[in-house]
Amino acid sequence: MGAVAKTGKAAQQPKVPSRGSGVEVRKTICSICMSRCGIDAYVKDGLIIKIEGTRENPHSKGTLCSKGAAGRQYVYHKDRIRTPLLRKGDRRSERFEPIEWERALDLIANRLSQIKSESGAESVVFYAGYPKWMRPFLKRLALTFGSPNYCTESSTCSRAAAMAAALNYGAMGIPDIEKTRCLLVWSKNPFYSNTSDVRKLLDARERGMKIIEVGPLITPMTAHADIHLRIRPGTSGALALGMARVIIEEELFDLDFVENWSIGFEEYRSYVEAFTLQETERITGVPEELIIRAARLYATTKPAALMTGASPTVHHTNGVQNHRAITALVGLTGNFDQEGGNYVLPPAATGVSNGMVTRQGEFEQPRPWEEMPPRIGEDRYPVWCRMVGEAQSIHLPFQIRSREPYPIRALLGFGMNYRMWPGSDFMRESLEMLDFFVAVDLFMTDTAKMADLVLPACTSFERSELKIYPERHVIWTTPAIEPLGESRSDADIIFEIAGRLVPDDHIMQEGYESCVDWILGPTNLTLDQLKRHPSGYQVQNVQMPPYKKYEKKGFRTPSGKMEFTSLILQDAGLDPLPRYEEPKLSSYGTPQVSRDFPLILTTGARLPMFIHSRTFRLPWSRELRPDPMVDINPFDAQDRDISQGDWVDLCTRRGSIRIKANLTEIVMPGVVNMYHGYPEADVNQLIEPDYLDPISAYPGFKSLLCEVRKP
Questions:
Q1: pLDDT tier at 6 (50, 70, 90 boundaries)?
Q2: What is the model's pLDDT at position 613?
């Protein structure tokens, strides 16, 4: 890998209070979201008294968002679970009593082994929600145990977008922001979701980079965009196809790439002919002249890059094909794996691509899928299971109920939130049908209250964790404080269970740190090195892969080329073109429904102080938006005699919730937006459990029909 250079000292004298105060600054990271910003924890007498951002961390550079700034409230919240808890009574009783760790771990091992002997290992599900850092260890545990049913919250997060891009290219490149001249930002708001990336983006903007923003909401990105294409939710595919028609008709596409490195172009060209400017405006609501401007700017400004959100484009019942249409623009314009375009890098660890090479993939896949029973959802979503290395957890409640093709009897869940599922009450009732349910969490959540056994996890301030950043900065954290009560690291819990369940897995039996060293093997980094420098290493002399790797290696698709028509979809009996279809519920597709529910409901957008449900219980975060609210355009509110702050009913065909009205032009007329995560107003309960994309099983969170009424 090359030489490494130290970038920080193990400890610093605190700025306040003065020397001799007994305060020590200890380095760690925030794990509330995926940015993992560096933290300086000021510790006195074993307690955190203050936190600041770590200035020498090259990713966050001393900054903290509102979530990270509330870190002390997160660590010391009254809802923290301090000891293992065993249920007394049935699942609705919510009565628990403390249990010793050894008894709890033995109980897990005995029950899971018993179920394996009775019904097969596939009857046990291993689930990872938030955080994500411990997933390689849980996946290895599941597969070594013999269960193919390792699944995660990525069943509704980033995997469908990655899968859609892989159907086109085999893999998708990341936007080369520092070298691009035009950035097409499609439904992503880094100002709220990835704050540590914003400085890099604004620096590029100041150097003259053009920005085209696509999305139905006005976001902080809108103020920096040269063009904002404000679409009707669920119509991204139509807009992308309409832009493609302009690019092809005006001969702005990359002829060399299309002729030599793609298949299916003629079928694709013929299909996009239907997306005239007039038709695309009718479907999407974007004016013709803006479609033309955006298409020309993206196609003629070289190089150009595409940046998409993890899930907004695929949280629709037509999501995979929409995202395929979007990413097809990259190859069409010759920006795939180009300098300043979308650069393909191998994954290093936990989703980060920076040129470093680790053995995470090899570690977490000890057995091939072909040697195991079918995964949850494999019969209904074969493309998902062919392309994604986990089961499809959105199908979990359906299989629990049907017991086909085999029963699901037990679940070991880390950071699980049943409200992640559409028709969340359907999922809650399904969990009640399990024989054995273990929840590992920081807080006694509503999901944890349903478990037979609850294990207390600890925060990033109380554990050791490896983090590799895009900037090739690597840190192994050490606990800033002792774990609260009897809480333990998720990794320690996994390895304790592995010691009982999979004694023949010699790598896992070596322990947590040994496994991390094994994963890091190709980098020539070791934990012994990292421990000597708690602020982290800046890895030097990384050999970055070349651009246009496809010229020597081809594409990781069945054809070896970029596929405008997907052979994988064709083999599965699905449409190989990135065909646009209306959302299953829309004013055009289901006019009979829209008569009673004329508004489009979109959910799941971010606010800067919330990430899913993780910080709703924190006073600093919650006071910024204390009440659940629905964003509604003033024109729609006036039609319904609704004023700011009124209590209203947000209704779908499935039910209603009572929330407050927030009148704002962030949403366009005809669209309402609801931020998810409020336990007292669970918007996912309004969505049918089977309101799903037929390829990925992703829920249509961002395009369905609703109405807002005064009680």
A1: very low
A2: 82
Name the residue with tokens 């995660």. Answer: 152
The pLDDT of residue 347: 84
What span, in angstroms and rounded, lies between the C-alpha atoms of 171 and 164? 9
Determine contact, residues 173/343, Cβ cutoff 8 Å: yes
Give which of 634, 704, 635 is closest to 662, Cα–Cα: 634
State both tokens at 686. Answer: 């309004």
pLDDT in tens, 397-435: 999 999 999 999 999 999 999 999 999 999 999 999 999
Instruction: Give per-residue pLDDT as tens, 230-246.
Output: 999 999 999 999 999 99
Using only the alpha carbons of the chain, give its radius of gyration: 25
Residue 525 is encoded by which pair of tokens? 């980094």
Predicted local confidence at residue 603, as pLDDT? 95
Identity of the residue numbered 466? L
Judge contact between 555 and 561, C-beta under 8 A: yes
Each domain of the chain, given as residue ranges in start order, spans 4-75, 85-158+350-539, 173-343, 591-709
- Helical H segments across 194-338, by residue range: 198-206, 236-249, 255-261, 265-272, 277-284, 288-300, 319-332
pLDDT at 17 (0 to 100): 53
As its CATH architecture, domain 4-75 has Single Sheet (2.20)
Angle, to 10 degrees, between the axis of helix 490-501 and the axis of helix 135-145? 10
The average confidence (pLDDT) of the chain is: 94
C-beta pairs of 493-499 under 8 Å, 24+ apart in sequence: 493/440, 493/455, 493/457, 494/134, 494/137, 494/138, 494/141, 495/137, 496/105, 497/105, 497/108, 497/109, 497/141, 497/412, 498/137, 498/141, 498/144
CA 435/CA 501 separation, integer angstroms = 18
Tell me the residue type at 314.
V
Distance CA 387, CA 381 (A): 10
CATH number of 85-158+350-539: 3.40.50.740
pLDDT at 18: 60
Q: For residue 5, with 0-12 CB atoms within 10 Å meaning exposed, 13-18 middle and 19 or more buried, which class applies?
A: exposed
361 half-sphere exposure, CB direction, 13 A CA radius: 10
Burial class (CB in 10 A: 0-12, 13-18, 19+), 650: buried
What kind of architecture, by CATH, is found in domain 591-709?
Beta Barrel (2.40)
Would you tell me which CATH number, out of the four given (3.40.228.10, 1.10.3720.10, 3.40.718.10, 3.40.50.300), belongs to the domain 173-343?
3.40.228.10
Least confident of 118-122, 389-393, 612-616, 621-625: 612-616
Q: Return the pLDDT at 611.
A: 81
